[in-house]
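**Fold in tokens:**
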Amino acid sequence: MILSSASLRAQRTADLLAERLEYTGRILYLRELYRTDPDVLLEILSMQDDEHETLFLIAHNPELSELANLLSPDHFGKIPALGVVSLRFDIDVWSDLTEADSGTTEFFIYPKQFRYFMPRQIRATLGHP
């Protein structure tokens, strides 16, 4: 299940994610995911149908980063734009998703990790800034 903020940029991100994953399920666009407290985000997650094993949450900072930092014993700081945090929870129903530090981090990726590193001297000889 994909839960997305109703903001245009978040909706575009959700649509592209669904397309890339060949996801044909439901996408919920919720105004409540825009600029809300991490506790509200957690409440929205905990109210989801238990038939969904996986939830994607597309929301905004700083609240999304605060939620990830609340749910994991790892510290992510501020999750950058297009950053992805994957957390696994040992729960059977979403309503059990209430404890701080209850998640296990599977991965944390963000765009700058994939930027090719080129030493400054080589970039200068190629005419790149």
Q: What stands out?
A: The helical segments are 8-20, 38-46, 63-71, 120-126. Strands lie at 2-5, 27-30, 56-58, 84-89, 103-109.
